[in-house]
Each structure stands twice: as structure tokens, then as C-alpha cells.
Design a protein that fits this description.
The complex is a heterotrimer of chains A (303), B (340) and C (311). Chain A is built from 13 helices and no strands. Chain A has 303 residues and is an all-alpha fold. Chain B has an eight-stranded mixed sheet, sandwiched between helices. A four-stranded antiparallel sheet of chain B has the order 2-1-4-5. In chain B, strands 11-12 form a two-stranded antiparallel sheet. The N terminus of chain B is likely disordered. Chain C is an all-alpha fold and 311 residues long. The longest helix of chain C has 39 residues. Chain C is globular and about 80 Å long. The termini of chain C are close together. The chains are: A mainly alpha (303), B alpha/beta (340), C mainly alpha (311). The interface between A and C is large, with 46 and 52 residues.
Chain lengths: 303, 340, 311
């Protein structure tokens, strides 16, 4: 496929040594990822956000967030941690709100992924493995779902289920599985006819065993790649849904804070917007770069 | 082909001297082609053989200066064509030689043509680039080339897209394109590997026929010694980036000296009859072991771990390429300490 | 060519039907009785009864579904609950402003992103490539809302370069109101697009036919702008379809922020008013737009890829 037949040939020879040493796909990927300093940094950023979210969840930090800590619209100051990012219209700490927003954002990413990944893997695996009418039906189903622009589907689901964070989990979860299902289906079609699966079949492995024990572990790295992208788009979508008033109610989400900022900006109050945007920027950036690095290390193509 | 040239003096058209091409990765330098020298003669065929990764393709891409950089680079040597060193030419002069004086065809006929342009368009592009012809002449020449490579109804085929042709037909188109400017040298990098056996024979026959017609030098890169014995006049055997044996085809096939060459020859299936007319069955042999890791080559001879004749000295010092018979334009030379 | 288009046209029917089914299930079955959402909790029984009858919710489900299909085919979605206007009239009024914002935005984005993608793919590995990639990743990571608020606050309010919001139907005047939303859309989508096109083009440059073209003696720029570009049109066209939902999202946010009376504003108003029939009609309409966009792309493939009509 590549121009660099020669290079590929050489690299193949080089890597034959590795094959002898028996390094697995995952260890190989880990080895590559470990050398990628930026990726390790992004992974740490994601880890930090997760820790903050957990700490906020258990009330260890930024709690209670709705306590009045000063006059309304106090500008950011270094006097105390609470006033680090100033106060909002009710005199609440914007810094605490940003931290609570982190909790919401990360939980939306996590829960919606927990919903969408099993659905995506299930449909993708069935379609790619069985082909025939099962495939036709599933492909029709996800083509249909992806034909309804995401934002409309999100609005519709949030509208139907009522406002609140649960609707956001579900709405994001059941709209996001399509891309994973597509990838998994494609990989299953490829792997199904590989020798190792045929060997398993000739040894009497049933459908379930072939799907879950043999093929799935060999395509599971796509789930990890997808997870990173899914997290990122869930966080972005939550902000937009909350902003549209369809999301989190009575809790400090980044989207709600940005919505508040609409009216505050003309009074020179920029810290809610800045706090929420910057907090969101770093985590989305980290997931963005991490997604690329994971793809490079887990799904290597010789460039 | 060799028969005709024996009486007359043969003309060197391409001289490769001490060519070194390396690939650089995080893990170190891979010397894919390490000090390789050979000559290509007018009207004759040079076969370069070896296993995957021995550097034969890298050698051919180096001649065209098509080594992808990064990760690869030609780090030393000379490639002399008409007295000029191709490695010293600026890019524009090199481009004027590519596809014009020196052409190349590749292993993958299915993907080597651009899928979104007609084959006529792609052949015309090569002609128009190197020859100062009118539009109509270019078109006529393209049709003529398609006819020359044996594709039926060329006027119609000229507006076909690659996907409308079979693999063998696509390789013929590649040949038409490569020969459209009457090159002095044609490099064919495993031109038949991806094709069916019957088509392979047709393509080789076509290449031979066209070579005689045009009088070009042909470099045939292959892992198939059977093909070399049928088509080539001279042969270079490569192993792990090195030339390990070279000479005329007649000499090498009759008196292979280097254990690696012998191993290669013994791994060709042959059917020969004994004097009573019964078919002799010969056991196929394989060369034990695998190609060494190019990043960590052993000290001494690169073939030592797979060689049944290995000496202690082979593990200490790599033998030089030494000439053992001055029998032809390409003297028989081996890189081996033993005399067997 | 014609049979291919016909086949593609036919293949949209099951998708359209599927969309109708999903939308119907979501709105008329999963959502329970929509009248409560429309009237709120404090509605009395008589109001509910009247509304149920007016919108046909008292009919059996299959008849309701039949009516919905008929709405799609006849393009008559009934009346808005909030404004009592016929929905198709609302769509007719809204589509002009929406298209005059989104079509130029889309073309400018695509043109700019493809050119930048080509440029950085050509200079792959050089500083300009690295710079553009880094800027793209950073740009992708900022919320669209932040871009909008920044533009509205600094460029319009503080610097006064653009009107803060508003709309004008007459033509040259309309442009001044559309300019900033357009710029914002372009900036927001550029990051993702440039990276996508760069990858797609780079993938093409490692194909075998590029090596053949080099072996012919062609110049790098000829290889790039003839051979690679035409092949890259295939993934570029694919990306255009992926863009449609982003266009719709863009229309939502930009129209509502900048007071442009397009389909996006209509939908957002409907969300705020719990205007069930309008949301349902908009969902259907957007899905149809997506399917049509997909169909248009499939047809455009035949222009760049001779293999397509055989598949």
C-alpha cells in the first residue's frame, strides 16, 4: 500500500526481532506511548481532572459550592482560595463552581461512555460477525440514527425525558454509539476470516466464544481510542445542552456558567466565562491529543 | 540474449559504486544497502536476487533517488550514468532522467496506477513531460505504446480507467508508460510477483522482447532464481544489505560458491530426468534460521548463523568481496572465506 | 451513471422511513402524552382533551404514524402550538436567513480548510505544518460558545467592528449582520477540518501511484495538485457530509446569539416554549436535509472517482 515498500521491508526485518521476544500488542503500545511525553502529560491532566471530580463528588473540596463567600461580582483576588476566581451574582465562589462543573463534566463523559460503548460494541460485533440480514438491519438502524443530526436528537431526548442530568447521560449515551459500532463492525469483518478465528472455529469454538474470547480482545484497542474521543465530545455537548437550558438544573455546570456570562460580560464580569472556558479547554485539549496519541500507538500505520 | 553480445564489446550504461543507503529510526540506523557495487550493460539483463529485506528494492529505489526521506537517505557512493554521478545532480536534472533515461516498474500493478485518471492520460503525461511533441503526436504515441505492450484494441483501451483492467494488463500499462520515452535502463522491481503464473511468463517474455527491440539495459529485481536463470545475463545475490556473490548467470548457476547462493538454488523445485528418462525426485532444501536483525548485525559475516560451513574466522571478520574468476564482463566474485 | 443515481435515490427511502419511525417513537410513544409537556402541570382536563383532539393524540398509534408520514410527504406539519402559525410557513420564512448564513460559511470553511490542508501536507514536518497542527488542536478545544461570546463582546461591543446582533432582509445590508457569525463559524470549524484534510491528503501521498508519478519524473507540485488532489477529493467529499450536523448546530447557536430569524432560532424558541409540533417538524426536516446532503455527495463522488458508479 505504501510507497515505502523498501522502508517497510526494512522495518519488518527490524521488528521481526521484537516478535521473537514476544511483545504483545498492548505492551508494544504502552512502550510507544511511554516515549510520547506529550501523551503522558495529557494523561496526567485527565487523571488530575478525574481526581478533582472525585474529590468534589465526595465533598472533600469546593463544598458547599453555594455558600455566599462575599459580595456579588467580586473580581478575582489572591486573598483566599474561594475568591481565586471571584464571585458570581449571588456572591458564590466561582472557583468552587468551576470545580463542581468539573465533576459534572467528567461524570457526563464517564456515564455516557458507559452507556454508549456496550451498545456500540454489541451492534458492531453482531453486524460484522453475522453479516447477512443481521448486518443489513443494524446498518440500517445506525444509518438512520446518524441521519438525525446529533443536536436534534439530543434536544428531542432531553425534551422528552425532561430537563436534568439524567437526560443528558442518556441522550449522549444513545447518540454516541454509532461511530464505535461502525469501527467495530469493520474490524469484525476483517478479523472474522483471519486464520486464528478459523482455527478456533475448527477446534469447535461456538459463535459466542469466537466473538468474545477470540475477536473482541483483538479489536478492543478501538474502544480505548473511541473512549477518549467520546469523553471529549460528551463534555462539549454537555456544555451546549446546559447552555440551551436542557441540561443540568440547579447545579454549577460549565455550560450554565457560560450562559450566565452572556449577561455579565457587558458589566465587565469576565471571570465566570474565563473560569469555565479555561477549565474546559485544558481537559478537551488533553483528550484531543490523547486520542491522537492512542490512535498512533494502538493502531499503528507506517507513515 | 547473452549470445549476441559475447562477440562484441559490451557497453556499460550504469555503474553503481559503493552505494550505501540507510534508514534512520529511533532505535538506530539500518544500513539497508551497505557498500554495493555493480554494472549494468547495454542490451543485457542484470538480475538482483535475495530474500525480503536484503536491500534489493532499496538499491533500485536509490538508483532512481526515490528513497523516502525521512526515514531513508543515501549516505554514500556513486551512481554513474553517462559519466555523470546521479547522486550529485540537482532535483530538476534528476527528474529529467527519471521516466526518460531510466524508468522503473513496480511490484504492485493493482495500486501503482492512479485510479482516477485514464491510462491514456497517465501514459501521455510521461510522454509530454520528456518529449517535445504536439498534442496529437502524444496521443498517437500513447496508443502506439499500448499496442506495443500487447493490449488489444488500443484506441479503445486508451480511455479506460485502471480498475477496468486486469492485473496483468495493468502491468503492461506500467511497462508502456516506462518505455514510452525509450529509456536506456529499465528497473523492474519484482514485476511479476503479484501476478498469476501464466501471466508472469507473458510479462517476462514481453520485457525480453522489448529489451531486444529498444536495446536497453534491464535490472530485474526478484526473489525467484528460476526467473533469473531464464531471463538474466548477469546476477547479483544480496544478503542483509551486502552483495554476497555476483557473476554471469551461466557461471553462478553452474558453480555457485557462496553457501547462501547454494541454499537459494537448492530451494528451487526442479524436475529433471535421469539418463533412463525417469523423473528424478530431489528433496527441496531450506536455509535454516532467519535474516539477522538489521539494527544489531553480528560481528563478522552476516550469514554466519545460518551457514553450515561457518569457520571461527567468519565470526570475527567479515570477508571482502573477492574475485575468483575473470570469466566475463561481470567477474565471478564471492564474499566468503571458504573455498568450496 | 443514471442507474447509479436512481439506486442511491431508492436507498434513501428505508433511511427516511427509519427516521420517521425513530422520531415518531421518540415523540409520540416514549415521551408519553405530549399534551402535558405542552400545557404544563396545571392544565385542566378539558384543555387536555381539546389539545389531544386537535393534534390527534386521541387516535390509535398507527393512525398517528400514518398522519405523520403524510405530513412528511405533503410537507404540511400543522401548526405551531406556541405561535399558532402554520409550521411550513415558519420553515419558509426561516430557511432564507439560515441558508444565507450557512451556505457562505460552509463554502468559505471548506475552501480555506482544503487549501490549508494542502499547504501543510505539502510542507509536512516543516515548521508551518507543526504550527498549523498545533493551532488547529488548540482551536478545536475551545468551546464554540466562547468564540461567540468573545466575538460579540470584544469585536462587536468593545471595538464596534460589527453590529452586536440583528438582521436585515434587504441584501447588501444583510451582509453586515451575517459577517461576524460567518467568521465565527469558519474559525470554529477550521481546526477540525484542516487536520482532517491534512491527514486525508497525507494518506494519499503514501499511495503507490504517487511513487509511480515520481518515477515518471513529475515535479512534486504537479504530483500534488494533479494526482494527489483529485484522489483526496474522495475523503474531502465524505467530510462534507460529516459537516452537516455541525452546520445545523452552528445555525442554532449563531442564529440565537446574533438574532438571525432562521430555522435555528425557531428551534431554540420551540425548545423554550415546549413547542412539541415544531421540535418534531424540525427534527424531521434536519434529518431530511442530512439525507439529501448525503445523496448529493454520493452523486458528486461519480465526478471524482470513476470506480464509484460500478459499486
Amino acid at each position: 500500500m505504501t510507497t515505502q515498500v523498501a522502508a517497510v521491508e526494512v522495518i519488518r526485518v527490524v521488528s521481526s526481532e521484537k516478535a521473537v521476544r514476544g511483545r504483545s500488542l498492548w505492551r508494544d503500545a504502552f512502550y510507544r506511548l511511554k516515549k510520547d511525553r506529550i501523551a503522558i502529560f495529557c494523561l496526567s491532566v485527565v487523571g488530575l481532572y478525574s481526581l478533582i471530580a472525585l474529590a468534589a463528588k465526595f465533598g472533600w473540596i469546593a463544598s458547599p459550592w453555594d455558600k455566599v463567600v462575599g459580595a456579588p461580582y467580586l473580581a478575582p483576588s489572591l486573598d483566599s482560595i474561594e475568591l481565586f476566581l471571584g464571585t458570581d451574582i449571588f456572591g458564590r465562589s466561582v472557583f468552587y463552581k468551576v470545580i463542581q462543573g468539573t465533576r459534572i463534566a467528567m461524570s457526563v463523559g464517564l456515564v455516557s461512555s458507559l452507556i454508549s460503548i456496550p451498545i456500540g460494541v454489541f451492534f458492531g460485533a453482531l453486524a460484522g460477525y453475522f453479516r447477512g440480514w443481521v448486518d443489513d438491519l443494524i446498518v440500517w438502524f445506525y444509518t438512520t440514527v446518524s441521519s438525525i443530526p446529533n443536536i436534534m436528537l439530543l434536544i428531542a431526548i432531553a425534551f422528552i425525558m425532561g430537563k436534568g442530568i439524567t437526560s443528558i447521560y442518556v441522550a449522549l449515551g444513545i447518540t454516541a454509539w454509532v461511530s464505535l459500532a461502525r469501527v467495530i463492525r469493520g474490524e469484525f469483518i476483517k478479523h472474522k476470516s483471519r486464520e486464528y478465528v478459523l482455527a478456533a472455529e475448527s477446534l469447535g469454538a461456538g459463535h459466542a466464544s469466537r466473538i468474545f474470547k477470540h475477536i473482541l480482545p483483538n479489536v478492543s484497542h478501538f474502544i480505548i481510542i473511541n473512549l477518549s474521543i467520546q469523553f471529549m465530545s460528551a463534555i462539549k455537548s454537555e456544555v451546549i445542552l446546559s447552555f440551551l437550558g436542557l441540561g443540568v438544573q440547579g447545579q454549577p455546570s460549565w455550560g450554565v456558567m457560560i450562559d450566565d456570562a452572556r449577561l455579565e460580560l457587558s458589566r465587565g464580569v469576565w471571570w465566570q466565562l474565563a473560569g469555565a472556558t479555561v477549565a474546559m479547554f485544558f481537559v478537551v485539549l488533553a483528550f484531543n491529543i490523547l486520542g491522537d496519541s492512542l490512535r498512533d500507538s494502538l493502531d499503528p500505520k507506517i507513515k | 540474449m547473452a549470445v549476441a553480445s559475447e562477440t562484441q564489446s559490451v557497453e556499460k550504461i550504469l555503474e553503481i559504486k559503493n552505494l550505501k543507503t540507510s534508514f534512520f529510526s529511533d532505535e538506530g540506523e539500518v544500513r539497508a544497502v551497505d557498500d554495493v557495487s555493480f554494472n549494468v550493460f547495454k542490451g543485457r539483463t542484470l538480475g538482483i536476487v535475495g530474500e525480503s529485506g536484503c536491500g534489493k528494492s532499496v538499491t533500485s529505489l536509490s538508483i532512481m533517488r526515490l528513497i523516502p526521506d525521512p526515514p531513508g537517505r543515501i549516505v554514500g557512493g556513486e551512481i554513474l550514468y553517462q559519466g555523470k554521478d546521479l547522486l550529485k545532480l540537482d532535483l530538476a536534472s534528476m527528474r529529467a532522467i527519471r521516466g526518460n533515461k531510466i524508468s522503473m516498474i513496480f511490484q504492485e500493478p493493482m495500486t501503482s496506477l492512479n485510479p482516477v485518471f485514464t491510462i491514456g492520460n497517465q501514459i501521455r503525461e510521461a510522454i509530454g513531460l520528456h518529449q517535445n511533441l504536439s498534442r496529437k503526436d502524444i496521443q498517437d504515441k500513447a496508443v502506439e505504446m499500448i499496442q506495443l505492450v500487447g493490449i488489444p484494441s488500443p484506441e479503445k483501451r486508451v480511455s479506460d480507467y485502471p480498475h477496468q483492467l486486469s492485473g496483468g494488463m495493468r502491468q503492461r500499462v506500467m511497462i508502456a508508460m516506462a518505455l514510452s520515452c525509450n529509456p536506456h535502463v529499465l528497473i523492474a522491481d519484482e514485476p511479476t510477483t503479484a501476478l498469476d503464473v501464466t501471466i508472469q511468463a507473458q510479462i517476462l517474455e514481453l520485457l525480453q522482447k522489448l529489451q531486444q527491440k529498444v536495446g536497453m539495459g534491464l535490472i530485474l529485481i526478484t526473489h525467484d532464481l528460476g526467473v533469473v536463470s531464464e531471463v538474466a545475463d548477469e546476477v547479483v545475490v544480496m544478503y542483509a544489505g551486502r552483495v554476497v556473490e555476483q557473476g554471469s548467470v551461466a557461471e553462478i548457476f553452474k558453480h555457485p560458491k557462496m553457501p547462501y547462493t547454494r541454499g537459494l538454488l537448492n530451494s528451487i523445485p526442479t524436475l529433471s530426468k535421469d539418463p533412463t528418462g525417469k523423473i528424478k525426485k530431489k528433496r527441496l532444501e531450506t536455509i535454516p534460521g532467519i535474516v539477522p536483525n538489521m539494527l544489531h548485525l553480528p560481528q563478522g559475516c552476516r550469514f554466519q548463523d545460518r551457514c553450515t560451513y561457518v569457520l571461527d574466522s567468519c565470526r570475527e571478520r567479515e570477508p571482502e568481496l573477492r574475485i575468483i574468476a575473470q570469466d566475463s564482463e561481470m567477474p565471478h566474485a564471492i564474499r566468503c572465506a571458504r573455498d568450496i | 451513471m443514471l442507474p447509479y443515481i436512481f439506486r442511491k435515490l431508492l436507498s434513501t427511502i428505508p433511511t427516511l422511513f427509519g427516521v420517521a419511525l425513530i422520531v415518531f417513537i421518540l415523540f409520540n410513544m416514549v415521551g408519553g402524552d405530549p399534551t402535558y409537556q405542552m400545557l404544563g402541570r396545571h392544565a385542566n382536563a378539558k384543555q387536555v382533551e381539546e389539545l389531544r383532539h386537535e393534534y390527534g393524540f386521541d387516535q390509535p398509534k398507527y393512525i398517528q404514524f400514518g398522519q405523520y408520514l403524510k405530513q412528511i410527504i405533503t410537507f404540511d406539519y400543522g401548526r405551531s402550538y406556541a405561535t399558532k402559525q402554520p409550521i411550513n410557513q415558519m420553515i419558509k420564512d426561516g430557511i432564507g436567513p439560515s441558508l444565507s448564513l450557512m451556505i457562505p460559511s460552509f463554502f468559505i470553511t471548506t475552501l480555506l480548510a482544503v487549501s490549508l490542508g494542502l499547504l501543510v501536507a505539502y510542507f509536512r514536518g516543516k515548521w508551518i505544518d507543526k504550527l498549523v497542527v498545533i493551532l488547529s488542536v488548540f482551536g478545536m478545544s475551545v468551546s464554540m460558545l466562547a468564540y461567540i461570546l468573545f466575538g460579540q463582546y470584544f469585536l462587536a461591543y468593545k471595538l464596534g467592528w460589527f453590529p452586536i446582533s440583528g438582521y436585515e432582509t434587504a441584501w447588501p445590508d444583510r451582509l453586515q449582520y451575517l459577517l461576524m457569525p460567518m467568521i465565527i463559524f469558519v474559525v470554529v470549524s477550521l481546526g477540525y477540518d484542516v487536520r482532517f484534510y491534512r491527514t486525508a491528503i497525507l494518506e494519499e501521498t503514501s499511495q503507490d501511484y504517487v511513487r509511480t508519478a515520481r518515477a515518471k519524473g513529475l515535479t512534486e507540485s504537479r504530483i500534488f495538485f494533479k494526482h494527489v488532489l483529485k484522489n483526496s477529493m474522495i475523503p474531502i467529499l465524505t467530510n462534507i457530509v460529516i459537516e452537516i450536523p455541525l452546520l445545523i448546530l452552528g445555525a442554532f447557536l449563531l442564529e440565537s446569539f446574533f438574532g438571525i430569524p432562521g430555522l435555528g432560532s425557531i428551534t431554540i424558541d420551540a425548545v423554550h416554549n415546549s413547542d412539541f409540533p415544531v421540535i418534531k417538524a424540525m427534527t424531521t426536516l434536519d434529518a431530511i436535509l442530512f439525507i439529501l446532503g448525503n445523496l448529493a455527495t454520493d452523486i458528486m463522488y461519480t465526478l471524482v472517482d470513476p470506480r464509484v458508479s460500478l459499486k
